[in-house]
Amino acid sequence: MTSGYITRLLAAPLIAVTMAAGAIIPGVASAADAPYKVYLSMSYIGNDWQTEAKNMVTAMSKYYSDKVEFHVQVAGTNAQKQIQQINGMVQAGADAIVVYPISPTALNSVTRNACNRGVVVMAYDSVITEPCAHNVTIDQHQAGRETADWLAKELDGEGNVVMITGVPGTSVDKARTDAAMKVFDGEEGIDVIAKSNGMWSQAVARKALSQIVATHGWDNIDGLWMQVGCYTATSMQLEAGIPEDELRPCAGESSNGHRIQMLEPGTVEGASDTYRPVGLASISYGSPPYSGALALKLALEKLEGKRDELAHDIALPLPLVTSSEVQLCETGSHEEMAAGCNVFDPEKVPPGWFADIYGPDTPEVGFAAALNAEPEPRD
């Protein structure tokens, strides 16, 4: 791979020696072992992000279908079930396990056992603290801190804030929420008047926010910090008859609906209802759904002996845009996304679909992968 951030952040020199017949490097499979048995272990799947991430991992496995035998298992929010499933994967002869861990620590023992059996374990988005695992993720503290800081400044340091958090127990939710709370606690004029779990779901966020609004009313809410749900919160205000120039600023996710609402009114032909540009004052960050696909690609490279070592923590750049930086994609090609487009026509994707699909090190998967689990054409 040629992009800068992977080159800088991975300790991954190419194996530069020719192995004698029968020689084995511990933890590295022979190319003759292909196809490799790769498992995807998912936890909670009740939101758009997880579906999209699964699509992109699946598309990556299809791109390398001549090298990968791919299997998927879902554990839900039950850490013990995920442990049992991973044990079963190891016993079934897994070469690599790509996992969204429901807990950063609960999987340590089963991960260590897998590593001792020569299995490459790659976590994406959320993390596993066992040192033999590799984590592919953004800086979740940065995501919480920078979005909360933006909102505090947008409110001039004064106002009532509502927080909608993510899936409890995950390292992602804890890091983002703790970092945001630290910012708000440092602002004397900011008062967090309500906080509720949104499970990274537009539907759950709507239910949670509806209960909060029923108690406090929109008149007592000055700003929103939402791990997922800015599209929903803005839609609810429009449905309540709040004028576009009085919409509450929202710091939140990279859902396509949210970013469309951040565009200036009238800039997207055919957009209607609440899935339209309204000039929303907002900041949008992404936890890229391609992280799992990249994890699979890196695991394959390690199995093939192309990477002698991988770092324990592989940091992805944080996609972060404000209203003035949102740019509509015309085709969704890699070239167009590399040039800076970051939101898609409402006629092409649903509002809860996540727009941060571009990764410079994953040209194998793009728009079709995120939408339909189909890889890019092979050369």
How would you characterize this protein structure?
Helices cover 34% and strands 16% of the residues. It has twelve helices and twelve strands. A six-stranded parallel beta sheet has the order 2-1-3-4-5-11, with helices on both faces. A six-stranded mixed beta sheet has the order 7-6-8-9-10-12, with helices on both faces. The longest helix has 16 residues, at 48-63. The protein is globular. Residues 1-28 have low confidence and may be disordered.
How many individual helices? Answer: 12
**Largest sheet, order of strands side by side?**
2-1-3-4-5-11
Unreliable stretches covering 5 or more consecutive residues: 1-28
Using the CA coordinates, give the radius of gyration. Answer: 21 Å
List keywords for this structure.
single chain; alpha/beta; six-stranded parallel sheet; 12 helices; 34% helix; globular; disordered N terminus
Write the layout of secondary structure elements.
Blueprint (H helix, E strand, L loop, with lengths): L3 H6 L26 E7 L5 H16 L4 E7 L4 H13 L4 E4 L8 H9 L3 E5 L9 E4 L2 H15 L3 E8 L5 H15 L3 E9 L4 H15 L6 E4 L3 H10 L10 E3 L3 H7 L19 E4 L5 H13 L9 E3 L4 E3 L11 H5 L28 H6 L7
Helix pairs in contact: 2-10, 3-4, 5-6, 7-8, 8-9
Compact description:
The protein is α/β, with parallel strands linked by helices and 379 residues long. The protein contains twelve helices and twelve strands.
